[in-house]
Amino acid sequence: MSKAQQDIRRKRWALEHAAHTGNIRQTCRYFGIPRSLFYVWKAAYEREGEGGLVNRKPVARFHPKTTPAAIVEQILHLRRTYHLGPVRIVWYLERYHGIRVCDATVHRTLKRHGLNSEGDEC
């Protein structure tokens, strides 16, 4: 049995124990978990079933400093059409569009989309 299956089994057992006894405080004390965590498990189980009990890494849904999609599209267009490198793309965007981005941002964007200098698909 894998670690994930053991975690799901333990959480489901705690939820079933609380449903059987009707006393959430006693269940949390028995399993050694805080009540707030119990309610998180319960809400996830009610919302998604057993899939909600799987441990997941906390992932940010939105980052405030993400490069806007319009700028990313311009960077990719310049790379695919004119085969410019990161420094020239920065220069072009600033001169002709008034957009200021860092060459490292352009490089990471190209790398994320598979258009970096090592593995060009231009």
Summarize the structure in words.
This protein is mainly alpha-helical. It folds into 2 domains: 3-53; 69-112. It contains 6 helices and no strands. The protein has helices spanning 3-21, 24-31, 35-48, 69-82, 86-97, 103-112. The longest helix has 19 residues, at 3-21. The chain is rod-shaped, with a radius of gyration of 25 Å. It starts with a helix and ends in a 10-residue tail after the last helix. The mean pLDDT is 92.
Fold topology:
Elements: H1 3-21, H2 24-31, H3 35-48, H4 69-82, H5 86-97, H6 103-112
**Main sheet properties:** none
Number of helices: 6
User: Low-confidence runs (pLDDT<50, min 5 residues)?
Assistant: none
* Portion in strands: under 5%
> How many domains would you count in the coordinates?
2
Shape: rod-shaped
The helix content is: 55-70%
Structural class: mainly alpha
- Averaging pLDDT over every residue, what do you get? 92
The beta-strand count equals 0
Gyration radius, in Å: 25 Å
State the end-to-end distance.
46 Å
Compressed to H and E, one letter per element, the order equals HHHHHH
Q: Short summary of the structure?
A:
This protein has 122 residues and is mainly alpha-helical.
